[in-house]
Design brief:
The structure is a homodimer. By secondary structure, chain A is of the alpha+beta class. In chain A, 59% of the residues lie in helices and 17% in strands. Chain A has a three-stranded antiparallel β-sheet with strand order 1-3-2. Chains A, B: This is PadR family transcriptional regulator.
DNA sequence: CCACACTACTACACAAAGCGGAGTACTCCA
DNA sequence: TGGAGTACTCCGCTTTGTGTAGTAGTGTGG
């Protein structure tokens, strides 16, 4: 099974969840996601997701120079983002529950 | 959050799980999925998934006439399908676990 | 008898989203 | 000077679920 297909729609949620623990820039969010167990996430996917969420009005954004490399574009949750995170979490939990029920092998009656 | 995006990659798994409980034809699989809680699945998606899984060699297929309507194209799991179901279930469970950990709000230390 | 609903499937074009690859650019180190 | 690590952008590709339309069979209500 291809892990990348599972991420569809869920990467948004994962990125929002990571940002709940503090503002972060793309490369950093990528590291945090991989550390959390999403090891196969591609960098372009994370940058794309951040851009999309920002454009959707769920994130704030500010650029900060770094002394150890290129500038960093930080993103953080705003109210819309927190609401989206809460709502998406519910949707995800419900969906995951449905799937886990479906996956339980039925005993012969 | 769009439920349809969550289905990506998971619909295969859901269809395989439903077929584990007995052979079924497209319209029937659709009903079983909806009854299981996947209410927003579109019919074209199910037919497409069945075709894809069949072409991938995970399903057997045979046509049977029906007295209450058009003919029915039945699908059933073969060894490849059962293996795929087992493997995909593992992948899904691991993925869902990872996500649930990520979604837990961290307490201030 | 005709319209409609339900069943059952196919085909086609479309859209969303993750990915690979290339490119840019900065810092540090061998 | 040239790699490695950091940090980001852009483009085109692929997969996959969806909407719409079309075909076709059965049964039912006006």
């Amino acid at each position: 099974m291809d892990t990348s297909q599972l991420l569809k729609g869920v990467l948004d949620l994962a990125v929002l969840a990571v940002l709940r623990d503090g503002d972060g820039y793309g490369y950093d969010v990528l590291r945090r996601l991989r550390q959390a167990g999403l090891e196969d996430v591609a960098d372009a996917s994370v940058y794309g997701t951040l851009r999309r969420l920002f454009q959707a009005g769920a994130l704030t954004s500010y650029v900060q120079p770094s002394e150890e490399g290129p500038h960093r574009k930080y993103y953080g949750l705003n109210k819309t983002g927190r609401d989206l995170l809460a709502q998406s979490t519910k949707t995800w939990n419900h969906f995951a529950d449905t799937m886990s029920v479906l996956l339980v092998e039925k005993e012969a009656a």
